[in-house]
Each structure stands twice: as C-alpha cells, then as structure tokens.
Amino acid sequence: MAAATSIRKLPSLSGLRHRRNPLEDNPYFHPSNGFYITPSDVILAQVAYDLSAQSQSRVAYHRAGPRREIMYEPSAVKAAIVTCGGLCPGMNTVIRELVVGLWELYGVREIYGIPAGYRGFYSMEAVKLDPKAVHDWHKKGGTVLATSRGGFHLQKIVDAIHLNGYNQVYIIGGDGTMRGAVEIFKEISLRKLEVGITGIPKTVDNDVGIIDRSFGFQTAVEMAQEAISAAHVEAESAVNGIGLVKLMGRSTGHIALHATLSSRDVDCCLIPEMDFYLEGKGGLFEFLEKRLKERGHAVLVVAEGAGQEMIPRNESQKQERDESGNAVFLDVGVWFKSVLKAWWEREHPDELFTVKYIDPTYMIRAVPANATDNLYCTLLAHSAIHGVMAGYTGFVPGPINGNYAYIPLEEVAQTKNQVNTRDHKWAWVRSVTNQPDFETNVKG
C-alpha cells in the first residue's frame, strides 16, 4: 500500500524567542528520551485501512504534549480563560486544570478568569485565579466563572484582549464558541498580535467533529441512565404505560444512542439523523401498540432535535432564534406526549393508558463530571497549555483514536460529528430495541 501522508499545518507565533522548557527543572518530572514531543510526531486521523486498495492518502495531526523548547517566558505570560455557551459537566475541571497546570508546570502567575462568556471580555472585570482559588472547583457542577450565550462582538473582544495585555487565551465552548474563536484568531493574526489562542471543545451532545468525544459526554450518558430507569419503572408500574424520555441532542443523537445501548430497557430510540413517521404500516404507533400488547409497557427515548419538522408551528415560532443564532426548538417531548394520548384515545377509547414524560436536561447539564470525564478534562487542559507554551495558536487539543493531537481550530469549527445510521452502531441499537427501520419502510 503506497500512501502519502498529509500533515495538517498548525499556525504558530513567529515573533517569540525559543527558550528552555522549565519542565527540565520541575521536581515532579524527570524528562527522559521520548518525553518531549518532536515536530515529526504525528497522530493519524484514520487507523483502519483496506490493504487491497492501490493507493490511499493519510491525514495526520501534530501530536499533543510538551516540547523541549517553549516560546513564552513564563513570567511574562498573562493568560485569560473563558467559558461560553450552555453548561456541561467538567467545565470547572478544565478551568481548574488550566490554572494549576499553568502555575505548577510552567510557573505562570498571571491567570485571569473572564466572567459570563465572550461579553465578559469587554463588559466585566476579570477574576484573578490561582491554585488555591480553584482547588475544589472540579467537585462542582456548572462553571464558577459563569457563562452566557451571544455577546460576540469581535472588535470589542480583541480590543479588550490587547488592552488588558493577555497573550494567551483559552476558550472553552461548543461548536458556536469554536466558530467565534476562529474569528478571534483571524483578527488577532490580522493585527499581528503575539497572542496564543486555543479552543477546548465543550458540548454535552458530542457533536464536535474529528476528536473522539467531547468532555462531559460520558457523564451525560451515565446520568441519562437514571432518567431511563425511572421511566422504565413508571411504565412497568402502569397499565399500558409508556415512559417517555427526552435527552439532549439538537443535531446529533449520540447521548440517546449511547444511553439506549447502555440501558437495554429502551423500546425505541429516535434521533435527529433519522426520519420516522407515526401512522400507518411500519409506523411508530403500530410498533408501540404491538409492544404494549406483548409486554404491557414501553420506553421511548427521543433526542430533542428529532421530529422537529413534524411539530406544528406558527410563523413567529418558525422565525424564533436564541442568543447564539440557533433556531429555537419546540419541546418534542411535550408534543409526543400529546400525540400519543390522542392516538390511544382515538384507537382505544375505553382502555387505560399512561404516558410519563421525563426531561432530565438540566439535571444532566448541571452535575459535576464523573471520574472518567474529570481525567479527560485534565488531559485536555494540559495538552492545551503545552501547545500554547510551545508557540502554537489557532488550535484545538483532543484525542484522535485515543491519542492526543493538535487540530487546526477552523477545521474543528467546520466539522460535525453526526450519528451514521448506516453503520454497525446504529444497527446495534435496532437489534437491542427491535424498533422499525423507518427509512426502509418509507422507501418501500
């Protein structure tokens, strides 16, 4: 197999001077051969190949980790950390580990938290951070710095970064936040400012592309289990009971998919990447009626973005947008509860029927990260620090096939991680739930 490898180039700051990495003198580290990452160390984007193919190109990313030389004098660093968008388990852990990592690994003493998201750069006073201030933040849900949606005024943000003397900016947020970070990076480059910019991807939906997963996702799946278990108990305890659980996932159904596979109590899982229908042969109502006759109960899991086109809207609702510019979704769970009740009353007017609707969204978003996500957040934070100190900018740290890499910020901002309903994982979901193949039924 002849294969050419294309290494994704990372932007770097050219006006800084190379200097010895202070990890050489850190009592907690004993750098040996292989400790420092070299420019030729890369992570392949794909690890599985068809050896029978004649020629295959390979994409690679620079490996994350400490470099032998850094580009910042630690005593001259003034770092800013900001959290944007919705809540997600692990946000406080990332902040904590950025502060502790900058302080303990590299000796940085000027570290500031920007309150209330992007708007905090130009409208609020920054908070001085040190290891003592953040020592127990990883045990708390939410973000101690506070967050918000919107407030993205590019010129005001970059002006504030420049006027306050920040030369490293760590931006924690989802896909919208990453798109904003790209604009900040471009404007800073245009102004020729020596400021390192890195984005740390946060989205509980796991919809950020290229990386293996976003932090907080595994905690979300774990918490979703509790909601599904409660729905199962409610449904099983009623005559013709349906437990309906709405899980997060505007454009992707990863939480619903993984929670369904983990639970094994789910009878049907509906996600934004699939079409489905209610009435007629092979439809959801027919399936649920059969399941109720066989078992006396059913559990239905639906991602918030599933079936949005089926929900009736007035003209005002069609135009409504949130502060981030996203279309405002109607509550698919409330709609489903209504149509399920109407269906049963029409088809079985004299029979008992119960729908118990559970929406655990804010419970899931607000919890602290579990042990796996806490460890992951630490590795992300330290990877970000090593990259910025080495002079890289405009990048995102993250695991690719289990190994940490630096990915150009713009590439991450433009890529979505959607569920492939034609791969083995979705086939596994259908084998677990025995739900209809709505797509095949529609085509048939």
Automatic annotation (TrEMBL):
GO molecular function: 6-phosphofructokinase activity; ATP binding; metal ion binding
Secreted listed as a keyword: no
Active site: D205
Residues given in the record as ATP binding sites: G86, R149, G150, G174, D175, G176, T177
Keyword annotations from UniProtKB, A to Z: Allosteric enzyme, ATP-binding, Cytoplasm, Glycolysis, Kinase, Magnesium, Metal-binding, Nucleotide-binding, Transferase
Known catalytic reactions: beta-D-fructose 6-phosphate + ATP = beta-D-fructose 1,6-bisphosphate + ADP + H(+)
Cofactor(s) needed: Mg(2+)
Name of the protein in question: ATP-dependent 6-phosphofructokinase
Source species: Arabidopsis suecica
